[in-house]
């Protein structure tokens, strides 16, 4: 535990140690902030398939995927009580005594579950990032539930319920994206069959000087979709138009949907993977719950032939999801470098 020196253990630091101070070009605030908000889409409550959604919702989701690669959904059908419980348990976990968390602590990035701090894969700068995190596999539920944290005592049940609900929501959203592309609504479900869901709880304590560091650097996700839950503390920023950071406004009980790079590959670039980063603040702890919905490792990542036309020729070669994860890690989650690794050269 002492070796890791979790930011959330002990008193709040009064200065930013050199190990967290980023080079000037990597610090927040180098790009002007945009006042253009990311889309907020009302799903109309309930669950069900995309057949329950009217054409305007499908078009809104597709347009948001093309423009931002990120949007918020409200009236999504996940019970408010479950959202409150998973947030309370996630925040409570980081407030546990040291001895209750010590068994999860590790500096081995491949261990799951893992409680750690700083950077996971973003190591080229030689700097750490201002966060602690808990990462675990949580789907299939039957396979991983025995590894869920035992404290707080309600955490295991909350993870189980939230995993089931978020997977259903992700499936529903992918069906609507498929319909927006003119594909069969079940087009993406083959990729998800047998795929895992990983939970990442990011915990960002107050930072003495937020201008010097980041909670997470600019990156794109390796999931097909990421579903993010937060409270009312700002921090997430999404890159729009390649030059403007859009601050995501927290909305009560909204789920933030972030399109990952596999979805950009699956759609031949018609849906964009959102590049995003996390800034810190000097006064308030921020805790977020991220659910990464991933294809199975042997899944073939390739666009539907119906998406390839004379006007939109095929941009990327086919590859397995396992090959993608290796390339993405080597590129340190950089969107452009990962796309280039699979681009068809003409």
Automatic annotation (TrEMBL):
What are the alphabetically sorted keywords of the record? Iron, Metal-binding, Oxidoreductase
Against InterPro entries, the record matches this protein to: DIOX_N, IPNS-like_FE2OG_OXY, IPNS-like_sf, Oxoglu/Fe-dep_dioxygenase_dom, Plant_2OG-oxidoreductases
Q: Which PROSITE patterns match?
A: FE2OG_OXY
Known PANTHER family for this protein?
A: OXOGLUTARATE/IRON-DEPENDENT DIOXYGENASE
The protein's name: Protein DOWNY MILDEW RESISTANCE 6-like
Q: Which GO terms describe its molecular function?
A: metal ion binding; oxidoreductase activity
The reply to whether Glycoprotein figures as a keyword in the UniProt entry is no
Which residues does the UniProt record annotate as the domain Fe2OG dioxygenase? 195-295
Similarity-based family = Belongs to the iron/ascorbate-dependent oxidoreductase family.
| Entry-linked Gene3D superfamilies | B-lactam Antibiotic, Isopenicillin N Synthase, Chain (2.60.120.330)
- Read off the Pfam families from this record: 2OG-FeII_Oxy, DIOX_N
């Amino acid at each position: 535990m002492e070796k890791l020196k979790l930011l959330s253990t002990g008193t709040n630091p009064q200065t930013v140690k050199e190990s967290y101070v980023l080079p000037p070009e990597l610090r927040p605030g180098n790009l002007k902030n945009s006042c253009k908000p990311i889309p907020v889409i009302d799903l109309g409550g309930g669950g069900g398939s995309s057949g329950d959604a009217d054409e305007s919702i499908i078009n809104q989701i597709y347009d948001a995927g093309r423009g931002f690669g990120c949007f918020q959904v409200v009236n999504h059908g996940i019970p408010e009580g479950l959202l409150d419980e998973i947030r309370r348990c996630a925040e409570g976990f980081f407030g546990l005594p040291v001895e209750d968390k010590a068994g999860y602590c590790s500096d081995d990035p491949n261990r799951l579950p893992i409680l750690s701090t700083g950077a996971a894969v973003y190591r080229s700068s030689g700097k750490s990032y201002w966060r602690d995190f808990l990462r675990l596999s949580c789907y299939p539920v039957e396979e991983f539930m025995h590894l869920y944290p035992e404290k707080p005592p309600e955490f295991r049940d909350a993870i189980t319920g939230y995993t089931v609900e978020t997977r259903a929501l992700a499936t529903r959203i992918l069906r609507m994206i498929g319909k927006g592309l003119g594909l069969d609504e079940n087009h993406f479900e083959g990729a998800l069959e047998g795929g895992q869901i990983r939970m990442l709880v990011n915990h960002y304590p107050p930072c003495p000087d937020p201008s010097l560091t980041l909670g997470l650097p600019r990156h794109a996700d390796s999931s097909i979709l990421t579903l993010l839950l937060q409270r009312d503390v700002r921090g997430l920023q999404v890159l729009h138009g390649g030059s403007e950071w859009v601050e995501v406004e927290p909305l009560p009980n909204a789920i933030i949907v972030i399109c990952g790079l596999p979805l950009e590959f699956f759609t031949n670039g018609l849906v964009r993977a959102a590049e995003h980063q996390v800034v810190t603040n000097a006064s308030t702890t921020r805790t977020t719950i991220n659910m990464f919905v991933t294809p199975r490792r042997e899944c073939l990542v390739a666009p539907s032939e119906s998406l390839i036309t004379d006007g939109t020729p095929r941009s990327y070669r086919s590859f397995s999801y396992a090959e993608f994860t290796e390339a993405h890690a080597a590129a340190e989650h950089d969107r452009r470098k990962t796309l280039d690794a699979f681009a068809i050269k003409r």
